[in-house]
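Hi R.,

Here's the chain you asked about this morning:
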Amino acid sequence: MTTFARFAPRLQEAIASRLGWSSLRPVQELAGAAILDGKNAVVLAPTAGGKTEASVFPVLSNLVAHGPDGVGAIYIAPLKALLNNQEERLAGYTGMVGLESFVWHGDVGEHEKRKFIKEPAELLMTTPESLEVMLLSSKVPVPRLFRDLRFVIVDEVHALAGTDRGAHLLSVIERIARSTENDVQRIGLSATVGNPAAILRWLKGSSRRDGVVVDPPKVPARRELFVLLRDEMSDLARDAAAKGVGKKSLFFCQSRALTETVADRMRVDGLEVFVHHSSVSLEERRRAEEQFHHGSNACIVCTSTLELGIDVGDLDLVFQANAPSTVSSFLQRLGRTGRRAGQVANTTFFCETPEAALLAVALVELAREGWVESAPPQLRCWPVLVHQLFALALQFGAIDLSTAWEQLARVPDFAGITRPEVDALIEHLVREDFLFRADGKLSLGQRAERAFGRKNFLELYAVFSSPVLYRVVTAANQDIGSIEQDFADRLVAEMTSFLLGGRAWTVENVSHGDRLVRVRPAPRGQKPSWGGYLPQMLGFDVCQRIRRVLVDDVAYPYLHSAAAAALQERREDLGALLRRAVRPIQVEAGVARWWTFAGGRINYTLKYALEHLGGWKVVADNFLLRVEGDGVTHDTVGAVIDRIASDAFWSDADAWRAILAKLPEYRLSKFQQALPEAASREMIGAYLLDAAGTRRFLGTTGGGSR
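And here is the predicted structure, written out as tokens:
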């Protein structure tokens, strides 16, 4: 029996008559069967490959056949923009079978929310943060709303797994699941992920259901790829504008500041240019999306805000400034094109440096080989554990530790934290007045209320800190967007100009009390600044693929002349060294350069180990360790590397305590301030360092290449 034939009759009729479908796609057949069989599932398919219907149709079939008492299913999106984008589509599917859907997030009015609470829709659409708000709100009767919850669908699950937001999401799902006697069925949707089975185990949480990865065979597709190299991004932007005239394109950039520069340089006659990133106002972003939908001669210059599944209609071209850092991002962006019959998926990389062109080649070649990054699970997510302890104390007024830990111990991201460690954490939080203990129960302490209690605990709803932002408005009170405080502090009224929303503005005045910058149009501007102090880490496999590009003599047909010439120059410079040396180290004038191509986290681990054992100054990036100081020679550096590769070094607890103590004081979470020093250091170490990967790198190669 086909999956379609197993659907409730009302759904079958609606699919045939309303949608005009005569059959389901393979992914929809396979996923539908698994979900109807009651299995947890991770469903894989390319962008626009039918994943949404693959998950929603069998869920609707269940809800139509057996109407739920309250909310029967929750659809969760990692981005509010994706949620808004899916609202009309999912409302159409629920409506065609006589069910209701409701979107809940911060922009939805209180009147609409009260109506939903009174008469719940069968399908709730929301974000992880908005689910937290519902749990913490005294106005939301969580046990009544979710007493018959049956399904949770997580869209773009690869963007959450292995992150703090993912740990937060699983925590919230487990807390909501306590309101129902149902074993809530978990369904994750993903276009690109390297370890779907591990993500399925993570998403399963406390569910006792069987699980399955739905990954139908992929149909080979033709792709058009180009890698261009020019010295100046302004030249590249003008090249992109010329290529984009008369077409619809997305131009992805790796930073908000770069989007502003590119958009400013792309403005030419005959091409509408919009800017889309998290600091552009919601109104401006919506205007860009709407006009782009209906236009045929436009480009949106964006960051990753348009990477995840948001539908901007038929698209002709994808441009990329330099290169993204992962194969996953490249494939997501490439997949925005090639959706129409007869259209070819395409990406043009506009690179400013030879290194960016090399990265582009490595990403393309890994994708051709079928490789994509995994989302590594985390087991000791300290900041979200603290966040959830605070949230539970706020939700219940006071809670005993055993009850709290009984809920939190179900979350895979805390599985590596032992109960004695939790007890020690609680003692620290009580001692530092983040928690208050009375009669065996924990409530929020005064220090936590001061740190997170502003605006009715708004700061506690989200896992991530928000920077201090200044709104940018015109004299007519048009909201342009926002800039961060450190940039606003440098503005001078009637003198400074800057770019925002792809346009130049002159500062009229800055009101620090109101965090408001008033501006008027200006002919030119400087790039605004939005942080970015953390080092950008490339993965080991990507960097090793770059090394292979340098060692091989393969000609890549998608490289234009300047990029091909730059590759040849780099091969002549480094190729022979990389081919002949087990440890490719160059020493000149007391400075050693060790070309590891091991990626950021392994190289940072080696940096701190070399500094600790050798007493040298070491600078690390994704490809190279630069060692300088007294006594730096091939032999001395090699001898220290041998010591790092030994088992004795990795079991030396004092050495690792000393290394962790030297790590920069990065603030990776707003809840880091509440952690004990050792846990905070461990957290920074987990971001910067990769001890296991470094041991594998040294153990299998002695410091060379795999």
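One quick note: The two ends are 49 Å apart (CA to CA).

Cheers,
M.
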